[in-house]
Amino acid sequence: MASKAMRALLVLPLALARTLVEERPVTKVVKMLKDMQDTLEKEQKADEDMYDDLKCWCKENQQGKASELSGGAAKATELASLVEELNASAESLATQMATLAKEVKEATATLDQARVLHGNQVEKYNTDEKSLYKDIEAVESAATVIGGGSALLQMPENRLKDVAAALQDAVSRRSARLDNTLSIRDHERLEAFFKDPEDFVKGQSLLQSPIGGELAGMFEGMKDDFKVDLKKLQEEMAKEKLTYEELMAGKKEEIKAGEASVESKRQQRVEKRQSMMEASFEIKNIQKAMGTSQEFLAMVEEKCSTSDQEWTERQKTRQEEIESVAKAIEVLDADEAHQTFGRTYSFLQKADDRLKRASQVLAGSADRRVAALAATAEVKGMEKVLKAIAEMKTGLKKEMQDEVEQRDFCISSFNANKAKVAEMSSMKGKHSTKLAMLKTKLETTASEISETKGQMEAAQKELKKAAEDHEKELADFNTTLADQAATQKLLTKALDSLKGFYQEAPALVQATPEGFKDYKKSGGGNAAMQLMQKIILDTKAMEAETSRAKKSSQKDFGKLAEATDKDMGAFNSKLEGQQSVKANAMETMSMTKADLKGANKELADLALEEANLHESCDFVVKNFELRQSARTEELEGLQKAKSILSGGSSFLQKRF
């Protein structure tokens, strides 16, 4: 803007000196000043556009940061409320877990109590069953003995008494049952039999044929009744077992469901507390970001406030320059000036006065270069003007080079900032994706750990239950073996007694006193011994079978214990691996969160850096071409002025 005024002043003396061969110099000067006036107005318009852009930038950043601060405050309040809700939910879950744990404990106690009651009931059933078997055996023995026919009369008195005593015990135990099945006559006959078995049998032998037939029939009926009772008892035992097993299954399912619910709520509580931590961490990040936004907003407000002041001063200075150019045009474009410039010689005589007047008008310009040349132009020596032009050219070239370097720095900085933002955004996306994957992995691992622990607990409980059942089974085996051994001992002793009598030499048959027939051994003795031997063989077979079953049970339990031990080892190894995976995932998550935090901070710093670059570079980059073009024109004008002044100096020297 100052170059045209400067050129006008420099060219003025030379143009007037050539008035004889060229058009009037005043016309050229006025044209130059008007061009200068147009340039000033264009530059003013460019400044206005730049100021409008700056105001827009200020408005956007002020509103944007204010909105960010308002949104951040609202988000922080929302998260604080969420933290309170999560905390309340976590406490509620803790209460529910305690209630469920209590219910599981009560169900376990009920299960233990039911196990004890069932054991007592089974023990009672077993006792009753053994008693019924014993009573059935007593009735069968009585029926066998009584059914011996005429041999019954030769049976030893002790044998009949033993059978009668065993039967009496059975009848006594089953009195309530027999009251409903035996007649009064039956009871009377039983009482008579119990009182004196031998006398009763002799009496029956005189009345019945075969001997004891009616009594044996009654015994068979009693045996059938006892077997009915035995079947009923066994059915009750089966029903009790089924009821117990259903209860156990139901309670176990209830306990399992309760434990699963406790674990589920525990996991939910862990997730709630994790969400609380994340929300609290996010609140801190928001507060930190709000602090950064407040600092940036303060910087924007300060910058925009300073820019307003600079704009006011710049407008005032430019207006003064425009007014000074307008006054110069007014002076040089007046009629009197045209008349005066028409007289070349007179103009040369008075040039100093007019030049001084134009210089005084332009001296008020804000452009130091124009003012300096205007002052220099008043000096008649051309050397000083030429020297000033050279210095101004050097200064303009330096300014142009500095502005080129500044523009290149800005472009390079913007590109570098953009590349860093892209890189950090990519890193942030990777970190966020990795965090989501780690969270899923932790949830899966937690579920797997819970499942493994549940399997371990189930295996331990199963082994404990199997150990308890095995212990009871061994006790039953030992009892059975002891019973069989005792039975064999008793039967062997009894058999030896019978053998001592029935297997002796025939000489034992002695003549009886007058009135008695010859004594003959009972024909049922051999049958009794055979039965006893059969029973002994049966007990030995049962003993052998029980021993085999006992060994098999011990072997099976040993295999189960060994398998469970291997399973527990595998479960422990599996659990250690899962816990290791969980620990590694948590460590990686912590590191990834730190990386994500760093990426967010880097992005915030880059955003601030970009804003600072816009602040210092937008004007330079946007107006670079216009400012370079203006300075180029100014350099060209200075070069032209230098050429003209150099030629004008020679011309004036020749003329004068």
UniProtKB/TrEMBL annotation:
List the signal peptide residues. Answer: 1-17
Q: Which residues form a coiled coil?
A: 83-117, 223-250, 442-480
Q: Which UniProt keywords apply?
A: Coiled coil, Signal
Name of the featured protein: Uncharacterized protein
Superkingdom classification of source: Eukaryota
